[in-house]
Amino acid sequence: MNVPMMVLQIPIINEFGGPSYEDLFRLLILIILVIVVALLAERIEKVRQLNQLNRDLENSAIQLHEANEELEAFAYSVSHDLRVPLRAIDGFSRILMEDYGDSLDEEGNRLISIVRDNTEKMGDLIDDILLLSRVGRQKMKGFEIDMEYLVRNVWEDLRPDWEGREIELIVDDLPNAQGDRILMAQVFQNLLSNSIKFTRNKNPAVIEVGAQNYNDEIIYYVKDNGAGFDMKYIDKLFGLFQRLHTAEEFEGTGVGLSIVQRIIKRHGGQVWGEGEPFKGATIYFTLPKV
Question: What is the pTM of this model?
Fold first, then answer.
């Protein structure tokens, strides 16, 4: 940065051949003035660089937002279009089994069953991808939510999944939260569904929904005594299409916790998990206090 220089004609030699106090004072003023101008110039340059950096960040954020919107629209379109041929495969394979099953040998029926099973799995995957896409696109409506009431409602909606099993549901006193009720219902639906699924081999199964106050946030959690998981795979827990158990052990697409994470992040919170093999898992998430 070039610093503007001020040129003053200052006699710095007095009549005795040395500098006078007045000359020294002028020289001192000149030096201070030059330093101040240099500091101001440096400050102006830093402000200019900071403004440019902010403009670059804003442009990057806009581009990233547009790319995310395009990606979500692409996922929605592809998933939606895949439904048509998938429905045809499912329909024709069902007709084949119903009308021609007696004409096929054991191997033929086995192969048709595999086609139908995989069609069902692909249908579940498409449903989850569409749900994931909707979660990112859906406009949020912020209201105060009675979390305890919400949990009990979701639990009743899941009755077909747990009825006939010995499951103890413990719902602690849950503070109200501020957020989108539909999206938060989706969070509890995914977490409670996971707990119901992964406690399948426990009798009795115990599922607890609780909360803790922490500074200006509330930590909610869903805990179970099910299959759990090894903490060395914790980085995969919320990864899209990541599974910590084989499909033969527990069904699923590996999308549910990704949806939970996306919803909680949209509410400004965080989500994490703890687990131990065969001793259960706990999923925590935070929301701002009302």
Answer: 0.70
